[in-house]
Amino acid sequence: MPKLKSESGTVKKAAIKRAPKKTGLLAAPAKRTPVARKKPLPKTARPAEPSISEAQSTVVASKLRTEGQALPPTPLPTLPSSYGESHLLLLVRDPHTLFAAWDVSPSTVDALKARIGARGYAVSNLTLRLTRAMGSATTFHLGKKVRSRYLKIDGGPSYIAEIGLTPPSGRFELIARSTPCFVPQGASPHQDWPGTKRRAVLGYREARVLAQRGLVPVNADGTPRKRTPPAPSARAADRTTSLGGAAPRVLGGASDLYRR
Amino acid sequence: MEEPAISIVGESSPPQNPLGFWCPVLHAHLPFVRHAEHEHFLEEDWLYEAVIETYLPLLRMMDHLTRDRVRFRLTLTLSPPLLAMMLDPLLMRRCERRIESLLRLASQEVKRTAVHQRELFEATLFAEQDLAALRELFVSTYRRDLVGAFFKHKAAGSIEIITCGATHGFLPLMRQTPEAVRAQIQVATTDFRRIFGYAPEGIWLPECGYFEGVEAFLIEAGLRYSFLEAHGLTDSTPSPVHGVMAPIMSTGGIAFFGRDMESSRQVWSAEVGYPGDPDYREFYKDAGWEVPIKELLDFMKPHEPRRPVGLKRHRVTGKVDQHLKEPYVRARALSRVVDHAAHFAHQRRLQATRARTGMNRPPLIVSPYDAELFGHWWFEGPQFLEQVFRDLDARNDVIATTPPAYLERHNECEVVTPEMSTWGAQGYASVWLNEANDWIYPHYDAAARRMIRLANQHREPAPLMKRALDQAARELLLAQSSDWAFIMKTGTMVEYATRRVIEHLRRFADLASAIEGDRLDERKVRRYEKAWPIFPAMDYRAFTSSLG
Fold first, then answer.
1. Distance (Å, whole) CA B187 – CA A34
2. Averaged pLDDT for residues B424-441
3. Cα–Cα nearest to A64, from B92, B498, B492
4. Cα–Cα distance measured from residue A42 to residue A97, given in angstroms and rounded to the nearest whole number
5. Which of A59, A95, A227 is the closest to B370 by Cβ?
6. Helix A50-63 and helix B261-268: axis angle, to 10°?
7. Considering only alpha carbons, which residue of chain A is nearest residue B259?
8. Which are the contacts of A20, defined by CB distance < 8 A and separation ≥ 6?
9. Distance (Å, rounded) from C-alpha B356 to C-alpha B350?
10. Min Cα separation A260/chain B (Å)
């Protein structure tokens, strides 16, 4: 008799509630309400029409559905709760929301304890500092067991986050710094274009030739410039900073990452 | 038995100055769900359903149009995992077996319903004939080679085949590890060249997910054009003069085509879209729920819960309960296809007429859809597409085109900087990053950084080390498929998606530890290679920080 197997089925909901969260992943704790925001959201986001996006989701879900008999449930395997390095990941979800997740290595904890003392460490707050390009920093105090957080923001163009400890002395002890995170700005005034200003055009055939010669991307006025290689993570010196790193340099715009 | 074509018209050549152009784009993709270790594996049904209900009917549509010398142009993404599965002899044999099982079930149902259920009998008879025709196509005409069948239309100049991310990884959320973005692009284009023998010029960014800077990786891989969700293009800096009605050249050096929402709405929309017509075939009412269990033994064991098997014989009917759905009447459905296709084509003419005012060129209407919308979700979708092509060809005013063909005629593009965008709900990343799936991203990020370190450290590895590094790269890429995050978000098949992510990341970590400790076990490497045979030309150096 053919063997019928499925890893889906009736056990899925119970299993998924248990799975990633309980296995000590770098998952957020149960309470992760977005940080309160006082100002109203700028009306920049223009979501796709709900009727279309919902229909798309329905269609895609229809091709990835199967109902059937599950084998007796087997425990889900687990992933490490920590990768043993201090690191801060900052992702953009939409023009109003960032997602930050971090890992703190045991060696970083030991170093912090050596610096500020075991008692100082015990009474310190975990602090997430979010700095907006050419703007001020916002600080969030968190419990030491918190591993991720959604952050409400008021538009771009870019942010850098830092995770650290704030001991009673008030001095911020840096643990890790994120790479810059670039936020879409939607239909904002930045795109207004003076009617008198000439718009740049470039032929597709010409662009292909330029690309073959390594002369893309092009400038905003349509003139070519020499291509710089994609910024590899190894070159991003400020992607993760150890203790006592310098103050962050927040880039001024999305393009800057690829202009370095 | 082959259905007669709805109408037959002569070949035409496009006019010099048409009213406008229409660029249909079908994105065909499934995650890699090959489970050779099990004779029957439910998630493999995703592939078999898509082959039987979408890919074969689309090929049949193209064959009909070619036979009748109707000019049609279509852009088709064949994602690398889908190509790998279509080229897999085991999966294609299983697919043939699936068609045979469905055909047997349909034949049994024809006999069972012949006497007392006349209308259901007619609907079942049509299903039987349709399945028999598809089996003939699959086995005799295409000899189980779907890729070759699609390529035949590419070679004829009717379709443009483009690539996608290697495993449909969602690129905007990989942005912090540029090498991971590069690997998704490089592995995909390498695989495309291996299969088709030429370099792809276009790419469908997974989930239409664009971020500024992705162009560097596209250009590096030889790609020259892609697509944007409408707001990604209209929110560009500066806002394009022609909106989505003309391609733009991004400051990153890639030509982008913006999605037209009006034509999307008419096909996609749950409220006003065509697929909800009462005469079209109902998706959810399936023989698996209702026929005697003894007829379903090819699909399930008697003690197992019932499930859909793919034999559907009812029509939408209206907003009524499933038990009130009426039997499918093919002639009525085809009549609606003709109406809807005429309506769609007419709307494109009106749209082009409106848009043309103030444009120095004919407007371009770009309509991207999930390929599986046609046939799988909307059973009559392939016939609809066929009839739209016939209608446009007969009138010869709005011309079906592909991106390269349009750019050949209208070379100049306005230079703008697009915005981050996707075609998911809300237009950004919230479908793939939310409370249901955010736990995966720290693991993706850690694994990607580890893979980059390994790739940078091992430039000239010994053969076994190379195989281990290649397999580690495969495992990471397979974990990164955006389908897993999507499934977690939608709440269906969540355990399977979770297991896949964890399994691939654990295998990756296992291999990485063995590589770092120089403790490689050839048997284990071979076992992992055999479990997920994808990307035979994989080169882990796609993850290096510089490709030189």
1. 37
2. 96
3. B492
4. 12
5. A59
6. 50
7. A48
8. A27, A79, B439, B440, B498
9. 10
10. 12
* Stretch B57-73: mean pLDDT: 97
Give the span between the Cα atoms of B7 and B488, in whole angstroms. 44
Cα B295 to the center of its chain, rounded Å: 32
Bridge partners, residue A181, by sequence:
A159
Contact assignment for B427 to A48 by CB distance below 8 Å = yes
Measured distance CA(B268)–CA(A34) in Å, rounded: 33
Q: Give A-chain residues touching B413 at CB under 8 angstroms.
A: 201-204, 207
Q: What is the pTM of this model?
A: 0.88
Beta bridge pairs of residue B25: B75, B368
B322: number of Cβ within 10 Å: 13
Beta carbons of B180 and B543 less than 8 angstroms apart? yes
Q: Which of residues 167-196 of A touch B (CB under 8 A)?
A: 178-179, 181-187, 190-193
Q: Which of A62, A187, A201 sits opposite B415 (nearest CB)?
A: A201
What is the spatial distance between Cα B5 and Cα B232, in angstroms, rounded to a whole number?
A: 39
User: Do residues B93 and B144 lie in contact, with contact meaning Cβ atoms separated by under 8 Å?
Assistant: yes
- List alpha helices for A1-117, DSSP H: 12-22, 50-63, 106-116
Q: Are B274 and A54 in contact (CB under 8 A)?
A: no
Within 8 A of B421 by CB-CB distance, chain A residues are 184
Interchain pair A255, B412: CB under 8 A: no
Question: What is the chain A residue with the closest CA to B289?
Answer: A67
Name the nearest CA neighbour of A83 among B544, B453, B168.
B453
Task: Please report where in the chains the tokens 């295409």 appear, as a residue.
Answer: B142
Which residue type sits at B30?
A: L
Average pLDDT of the residues in A27-32: 36
The answer to whether the Cβ–Cβ distance between B495 and A193 falls below 8 Å is: no
Question: Cβ distance B61 to B383 under 8 Å?
Answer: yes
Q: What residues of chain A, 46 to 75, have a C-beta less than 8 Å from chain B?
A: 46-69
User: Looking at chain B, which residue has its C-alpha nearest residue A4?
Assistant: B40
pLDDT in tens, A177-236: 999 999 998 765 544 555 556 778 888 888 888 888 877 667 766 676 665 656 555 443
Angle formed by the axes of helices B463-479 and B494-516, nearest 10°: 150
Closest-CA residue of B relative to A103 is B442
Residue B143 Rama label (left phi>0; alpha psi -120 to 50; beta)? left
> Which helix (H) or strand (E) element contains residue A176?
strand A173-177
> For B116-155, what is each residue's pLDDT tens digit?
899 999 999 999 999 999 999 999 999 999 999 999 999 9
* Mean pLDDT score, B465-469: 98
Q: Exposed/middle/buried for B82, CB within 10 Å: 0-12, 13-18, 19+?
A: buried
- How many Cα atoms within 13 Å fall on the side-chain side of residue B165? 29
Quick one: pLDDT band at residue A56, thresholds 50, 70, 90? confident
Nearest CA in chain B to A186: B235
Place of tokens 């007969």: B394
Residue B412 distance to chain A (closest CA, Å): 4
β-bridge partners, B23: B366
Closest CA to B79 of B157, B18, B168: B168
- Exposed / middle / buried, residue A31 (Cβ in 10 Å: 0-12, 13-18, 19+): exposed
Return the pLDDT at B246: 96
For testing contact with chain A, the best of B33, B438, B486 (most A CBs within 10 A) = B438
Whether the complex's predicted ipTM is more than 0.95 is answered with: no
Closest listed residue to residue B542, CA positions, set B170, B80, B175, B178: B178
Tallying the residues shown for chain A, one arrives at: 260
Residue bearing tokens 């927040």: A250
Tokens representing residue B60 in the block: 């049949």
